[in-house]
Specification:
Number of helices: 6
Helix content: 25-40%
Shape: globular
Strand order of the largest sheet: 2-3-1-4-5-6
Distance between the termini: 20 Å
Largest sheet: 6 strands, mixed
Radius of gyration: 16 Å
Order of helices and strands: EHEEHEHHEHEH
């Protein structure tokens, strides 16, 4: 039984076509809703998911911002988020340009007014998507790890489409546990 609910905001950013919306659809629907057709996100979309924290009586109501990967809204996004807590930058393991642009997304994120953790995101994550496309992988090995280290992020990789979802699901739980601890230090 859930006795405490914490609230937090997760910002998900990255280039267009890296799989942010598919990832979030799968997470919010507990793996039941994978978009069959690619549909570009033209404006920020917001989802809410109540996530029970395993082995506790706590849950986090997570407000998730799915941000478009197009330049049209780039400078407005950080104002739209309004005090976010968590950051996830997604890139495509089959497209090196998407890994190279992580720096641009981090610079955008730095402009936001983060709610806790001394004005920086709690438990930032770099997520490499599309590991299932083994024949096309170009971003593997140390390079994504070094990028994550450069920005003090935890690195995960997986695939939404082939249901290599456990590592991706763990990405969210890693952040949610840190958020819970930061909102209530007695729970560490």
């Amino acid at each position: 039984m859930i006795t405490r609910i914490f609230r937090g905001k997760l910002v998900v950013i990255g280039d267009q076509g890296v799989g942010k919306t598919a990832l979030l659809n799968m997470f919010v629907s507990d793996g039941r809703e994978y978009p069959k057709n690619y549909s570009m996100t033209f404006a920020p979309e917001v989802s809410i998911k109540l996530v029970h924290i395993p082995n506790t009586n706590d849950a986090v109501e997570l407000i998730i911002y799915d941000c478009p990967g197009i330049d049209l809204y780039y400078e407005l996004l950080n104002k739209f988020w309004n005090g976010p807590d968590l950051l996830m930058v997604v890139f495509d393991l089959t497209n090196k340009n998407t890994l190279d642009s992580v720096a641009n997304w981090i610079n955008l994120a730095k402009k936001a007014k983060w709610r806790g953790n001394g004005g920086i995101p709690i438990a930032p994550v770099l997520l490499g998507n599309k590991i299932d496309l083994e024949n096309r992988l170009v971003c593997q090995g140390e390079e994504p790890v070094l990028v994550a280290d450069r920005y003090n992020m935890k690195y995960f990789f997986g695939s939404v489409v082939s249901l290599i979802f456990v590592p991706i699901h763990e990405t969210f739980f890693s952040q949610i546990r840190k958020l819970r601890s930061s909102l209530n230090p007695c729970l560490k």
